[in-house]
Amino acid sequence: MSTPHVVVVMGVAGTGKTTIGPLLADQLGVPYAEGDDFHPPANIAKMSAGTPLTDDDRWPWLDAIGAWAHGRAGLGGVVSSSALKRGYRDRLRAEAPGLVFVHLTGTRELIEDRMSHRQGHFMPTALLDSQFATLQPLGADEAGVAVDVTGTPQEISERAYEALLALDK
């Protein structure tokens, strides 16, 4: 990529944001930040209990991610964030206007299967339906690409990297 972008790897829980984000950051030669690390403890507790977050729960989390992204402007970086609603992405862009989104997409069945096999993560599969219900895919006017999560992490990351390169052409 000609100019280092700050990339948000987004999607519902279980799409592989935490796996693909670092791989993509390595390909781009920029640092990676795990979006879950920006959650306050109350959010983690709520999700661990199977309770979906409200918008009021998400605003401080999104602001913290946006501040990190703002600090990486012109330097590049990759951060994960579900960024499920257009309003959430708008809030992130308010902090860091040049953000580019990589929306990881997949079928509910594939994502549920992947979630059922991961260990040590706070997000239960019971919240997957609320994630899909909340999801608003990238609009045509939003800088970003959609990338299918079928395949190995390396294949997915390579598709994301190639799609990002194509944005710069």
Present the secondary structure layout.
Elements: E1 6-10, H1 17-28, E2 32-33, H2 41-48, H3 55-71, E3 77-80, H4 86-95, E4 100-105, H5 108-117, H6 128-134, E5 144-148, H7 153-167
Parallel strand pairs: 1-3, 1-4, 2-3, 4-5
Architecture overview:
- With 169 residues, the protein is an alpha/beta fold.
- The chain is built from seven helices and five strands; from the N terminus they run βαβααβαβααβα.
- It has a five-stranded parallel sheet, with helices on both faces.
- The chain is globular and about 45 Å long.
- It starts with 5 loop residues before the first strand and ends with a helix.
> What does the average pLDDT come to?
89
Strand order of the largest sheet: 2-3-1-4-5
Order of helices and strands: EHEHHEHEHHEH
- Estimate what percentage of residues fall within beta strands: 5-15%
Approximate shape: globular
The residue fraction in helices comes out at: 40-55%
Oligomeric nature of the chains: single chain
The major pleated sheet works out as: 5 strands, parallel
- Please tally the helical runs, counting DSSP H or I stretches of 4 or more residues: 7
Low-confidence stretches: none
Radius of gyration: 15 Å
N/C terminus separation: 9 Å
Helix/strand structural class: alpha/beta
Total number of strands: 5
